[in-house]
Amino acid sequence: MDTLNTAPADDAPRPLDALLRPRSIALVGASADLRSFGGFVLGNLLRFGYPGALHLVSRSSAQIEGRDCVKTVDELPEGLDLAVLAIPEAGVLEALRSLAARGCRSAVIFASGYAEAGEEGRARQQQLADLARETGMLLLGPNCMGYTNYQDAVPLTFETLPLERAEGRPGIGVLAQSGAMAANLRDAFLGRGLVVPCVCSTGNEASVTVEDVLAHYLADAQVRVVALYAEQIRRPQLFLALARQARVAGKPIVLLMPGRSARARDAAASHTGALAGDHASASALLKREAVVLVDTLDELFDTSVVLLRHPVPPAGGTAFVTGSGAMKNLALDFADDIGLPLPSLSAPTTAALTSLLPGYAVAENPLDYTTIGVRQPGLIGELIHTMLADPAIGSGVLSIPVGPVIAQRDKAEHIVPALARAAKPTLLVLTGDAAPMEPFFTEAIRTSGVPLFRSPDRALRALRRVAAYGEALARATRAATPAPQALPLPGPVPANRLYAEHQGKAWLAAAGIPVPPGALARDLDAALAAAGRIGYPVVLKAQASELPHKSDVGGVVVGLADAAALRAGWARLHESVARHRSELVLDGVLVEAMGARGVELVVGARRDPQWGPVVLVGLGGVWIEALKDVRVLPADLAEADIVDELRQLKAAPLLDGIRGAAGVDLGAVARVVAAIGAQMRANPALAEIDINPLVGRPDGVLALDALLCVSGGAGTASA
Fold this sequence. Notes:
There is one protein chain. This protein is of the alpha/beta class. It has 4 domains: 17-251, Rossmann fold (3-Layer(aba) Sandwich), CATH 3.40.50.720; 312-476, Rossmann fold (3-Layer(aba) Sandwich), CATH 3.40.50; 517-593, Dna Ligase, domain 1 (2-Layer Sandwich), CATH 3.30.1490; 599-710, ATP-grasp fold, B domain (D-amino Acid Aminotransferase, Chain A, domain 1, 2-Layer Sandwich). Helices cover 37% and strands 21% of the residues. The chain is built from 24 helices and 30 strands. The chain has a 7-stranded mixed β-sheet, sandwiched between helices. It has a 7-stranded mixed β-sheet with strand order 9-8-11-10-12-13-14, with helices on both faces. Strands 20, 25, 26, 27, 28, 29 and 30 form a 7-stranded antiparallel β-sheet that branches. Helix 16 (439-448) links the parallel strand 18 (426-431) and strand 19 (452-453). Helix 11 (325-338) crosses helix 17 (456-476). The longest helix is centred in the middle third of the chain and has 21 residues, at 456-476. The radius of gyration is 31 Å and the shape is flat. It starts with 16 loop residues before the first helix and ends in a 9-residue tail after the last strand.
């Protein structure tokens, strides 16, 4: 997969029936060699019994498998739906031009040697993209493994596929830019006995992108969940619109999107730009539309499987049921580590469990039912249903060993049917790693549809993702904060697009964000007068748009208690700035009241050029670079949701006050975050805002520093 954006610039998906549900196919590069790309594709088509018209193009064979071949594309009928190009890169462009001249509507391109292969390859891919735009032909690839439509028996990929049919049951649509990942997902789901209506790899995306295929899947009644691997989302606004459509339709999108560890691209000279990079910005906005973001391949498999059975999960924590005290303790630790609640049970639930359990068992969550399952296997199902009926419980896990044959028979006849009847997501964990399972037991689980895991860790991680999806669905139904009128920018835009701190603070004050009393002084007398009005102690800060990090050059002097200290500080500041930046002309010096002590936070915002604005909040001051304890959020989040996000910070105990220290007015912090987000939405000229630190106290907040950056095309008036 490459990073060249040759995808169409329009914001609407293209209909893909000609590509993914073709009534006629030309195989260009058909071969009697079963281990060639053309041989693999032909073998798949014949094995699946493709019902449409099939035309073979082969320079070396007049007939393959009893089917006549033509030697060139020019001999094909006009108006074909699809051509599969199983030929080297050198012949692809010419073949596409001939196909376009004959009215072929779409093509699959396996060949590599395009944008993934350097500048010359990028130029070759651009030619494909240009041809697609000029002719309207849909191109899947290049550098892709094609697709398999199991519904319509269209297996167009260069690996030998066993015959599978997509039955009428709902299934998982597999979509990946990587062909190997698409095959990996396909095999994982089919191996669990699940339905996969279609699996598609988009490769370099010279024409057709994941957004086009995603739209096709959302319109397919048999696709209930989309499992997606994407390294680059080329049409972000369209993707977000489709995610919104999927959310409303109740079709979860489970996305694995690598790139968290990639070095963030340079933005403005701020912490916000570094921490709210492309991946973080995309993730925040995708979560806003309830896209289920996962971190590992296991989570992509597991979460998709659970959501296939329960696409609208109920609210509540997880009930963990086991017959092992050790497993109970491990579950407590692991659930705490990943942030999965294992709620306490209500009094009626506890009483009901007590009536079922032996006297030495404790009726609680997690539940260790001891050894009663050996004599009464049917009782385990009753225990699980009792816990699932508790209002605080939204899902369940039963973790038990595979056991000997007789135990497997008990599980197949009693426990699996009980789990299958559960109205809430309930997972079966069979411990023992690779301990063998009897065929009848495996078949009972597959037939039931109960999600099976061999690791409690994987089961609990999947349920945490499912719970996050349910939370995102609930959050998305709440109204977004309305965007106010855009505030005017604070004067002419500097050449470097960064405003000086005194300008940024004036703008913050106009937005209703508290800042310390202060004034810009251009000489010592003005500074003394300002300090007299403000009251000592004061701080001096050198001001210039070219000096975003003033302390690096000695441009900040704090704790000036009287006029004599101010005079000395004034001289020291100017000497230090001149020594480090002799060419710099200051706007003046900001004279400000010393800020009160409190918890130092950072609040910022950034406009991603493709995804749009996001906001950031977290631990600030000197801790921001060391701990990076921040939350990146959508710019339209409601204040109550912002408070919830603040409580998910690692530093959340500081906000409530520890060791006798005062806490922080979280509502005041949330109002600042919401105000910044609202201005980012209202004024497209704003590129970045950074308030670090924002001091939080029990009685409110105070912005002690501010950076304001506008886009290159911003003017001098309000947006």
